[in-house]
Write a structure and sequence with these properties.
Layout (H helix, E strand, L loop, with lengths): L1 H22 L3 E4 L2 E5 L4 E3 L1 E4 L11 E6 L6 E3 L14 E3 L10 E3 L10 E7 L3 E15 L6 E4 L3 E2 L4 E9 L7 E4 L6 E7 L5 E9 L8 E8 L5 E8 L1 E2 L5 H41 L1 H18 L3 E5 L5 E5 L31 H11 L5
Parallel strand pairs: 2-10, 12-19
Antiparallel strand pairs: 1-4, 3-8, 5-6, 5-9, 7-8, 9-10, 11-13, 13-16, 14-17, 15-16, 17-18, 20-21
């Protein structure tokens, strides 16, 4: 038991010794490469370790310089020590006492490629340049592609959500997002997606209507430094299903049927009237005249005295009327001779003109 206790004590002592040794080293953690938008800004995340206990900010001096040239400083607490091309464009965002050496570079130029390294100096103790952990910048003349996401199906009267997002490397001055619709309905967020990259996104929620169908929704991002990028999406809104979409077509069909029936009724009535007018004209024409002639003839026959007809062998006809005998002249066949009705006019004395014409027409076809 005593031997095991001694071994455990020795193991704990060794852990303390090694932990102290390992903690007394110079070490920096940076992102080896970052995409940077020209004219905007970039933030270089940095953490470091130094030997000994933790010191306040005032006891530590932080410097950023070119990897190949230590005297080409891009940041120093004494601005006179900074290279002219970087003066006024760099600042330390982290607190050295908290072992944070994060640096911001503003108004990025095409020549700000780096690599850049951090150097820590503790006066009267030690100093160290982390040249094995430096940051290189990859310059971009235009922003990355802006992403616009939306719901696949938009329905009239149902809230719809749109998300517009873009990546960046300047969290100290994140880009702003605006919509072609009112921004009062939009929310905004900026989140760290690690390794010095950030993503800013905006959520827009609104209720689409039929008037929004086939319209464009625009999302525009504005970067620190003045550059902008935009993306557009064509909106398709599905009409909300309700009873009106059923009633309206039915009413339209019924209305069309009534209209067609009314037109047919009016046309039928019009044609019937025209047929009646034609019949009336015919009756007042030839048919009317024939009817009048027939009535006159029947009236004349009723007013004649009784006539007794005897047939003789020679086909002659004797007519006896009343108390006095009357002999009607024999009419020859129309095939044998031509009749001269002008000579017989005296025979039909007492008849009016219409009766005479009627009887003359009858006698053309034979004897009565």
């Amino acid at each position: 038991m005593r031997t095991q206790g001694r071994l455990l004590f020795c193991w704990l002592c060794l852990q303390v010794i090694f932990a102290t040794v390992l903690s007394d080293v110079w070490k920096a953690e940076v992102v080896s490469e970052l995409k940077t938008l020209v004219s905007s800004c970039v933030v270089l995340p940095c953490k470091f370790q130094y030997p000994g206990k933790q010191l306040p900010d005032s006891r530590i001096r932080g410097i950023w310089h070119q990897q190949a040239k230590h005297d080409q400083r891009i940041y120093h607490e004494d601005s006179t020590e900074i290279a002219d091309s970087f003066k006024g464009r760099t600042r330390l965002l982290g607190h050295l006492g908290e072992k944070n050496c994060t640096l911001e570079i503003d108004e990025v130029k095409n020549h700000d490629n780096g690599p850049f390294c951090f150097r820590a100096e503790i006066p009267s103790i030690d100093k160290y340049s982390f040249v094995e952990s430096c940051v290189a910048l990859n310059m971009m003349s235009a922003p990355e592609e802006l992403k616009l996401e939306q719901m696949k199906t938009l329905e009239d009267g149902v809230p719809a959500t749109f998300k517009c997002s873009i990546r960046h490397t300047c969290p100290s001055h994140p880009p702003t997002i605006t919509w072609s619709r009112s921004n009062s309905e939009a929310t905004w967020s900026n989140r760290d997606i690690l390794h010095g990259n950030w993503e800013v996104e905006s959520l827009l929620i609104f209720i689409p209507t039929e008037k929004d169908d086939f319209t464009h929704l625009n999302c525009t991002v504005s970067f620190h430094g003045g550059l902008q990028s935009s993306v557009s999406s064509l909106i398709h809104v599905k009409r909300k299903t309700n009873i009106l979409h059923i009633v309206i077509p039915v009413v339209a069909v019924i209305g069309t049927a009534f209209l067609f029936g009314g037109v047919c009724f009016v046309m039928n009535k019009k044609y019937k009237k025209q047929i009646q007018e034609l019949r009336s004209r015919n009756e007042n024409g030839m048919l009317g005249r024939l009817s009048r002639m027939s009535r006159r003839f029947r009236s004349h026959r009723r007013n004649e005295p009784a006539v007794h007809m005897t047939t003789k062998p020679n086909n002659s006809v004797n007519v006896v009327s009343g108390s006095a005998g009357f002999s009607k002249p024999r009419f020859p066949s129309p095939k044998s001779e031509h009749k001269d009705y002008s000579k017989s006019r005296d025979t039909y004395a007492g008849y009016d003109e219409d009766d005479y014409t009627n009887m003359a027409e009858q006698n053309i076809y034979g004897n009565v």
